[in-house]
Design a protein that fits this description.
The protein contains three helices and five strands, in the order βααββββα. By secondary structure, it is α+β, with helices and mostly antiparallel strands.
């Protein structure tokens, strides 16, 4: 069963900021980044439970190429996957605590 997707506003901002950074490195790289993240998120729609819970009720998926982590939880009642953040793998994740307390 495919789950619907929902995003925290901050998650969309995470993706936008990363795309801007990659564009600054090499024009066109931001498109490759966006496609890689999109593929990883689309995989979640059909297999949301393929990643184990890592903290609180949050699961983490990874794109194939770029060093980012997609932090999400599953709302089983609403049959949706909620993306709370898309962050670089080396970033301190303490800032996500605020997002997970909602």
């Amino acid at each position: 069963m495919n789950y619907r997707l929902a995003y925290f506003i901050e998650a969309r901002e995470d993706i936008s900021a990363a795309k801007n950074w990659y564009f600054g490195q090499l024009p066109g790289l931001e498109v490759r980044f966006a496609k890689d993240v999109k593929r990883a998120i689309e995989r979640l729609r059909s297999t949301p439970f393929s990643h184990s819970i890592r903290y609180k009720n949050i699961r983490i998926a990874h794109p194939d190429v770029f060093p980012y982590s997609i932090h999400y939880y599953i709302d089983e009642d609403m049959k949706r996957i909620v993306i709370i953040g898309v962050v670089h793998s080396r970033r301190d994740l303490a800032f996500l605590d605020e997002r997970t307390s909602r």
